[in-house]
Amino acid sequence: MAWFKKRTAGHIEGQAVDLGFLTFQNTSEVLRAQKVLSEAGWKIRVMGPPPGSGPGAIW
Q: Model confidence over 4-13: pLDDT tens digits?
């Protein structure tokens, strides 16, 4: 899972801020997405899943 937002020089009145999260099946997908998004100028924060979540978990 990764939180991301586009890099900005600071808050500018009327400027949109993009936020979101992504989930993946395995670590290699996370690393690939982190690389691609970082190269595209997105600020990335990679985090592990919440405790108790695993295969078949219902949120």
A: 555 554 555 6
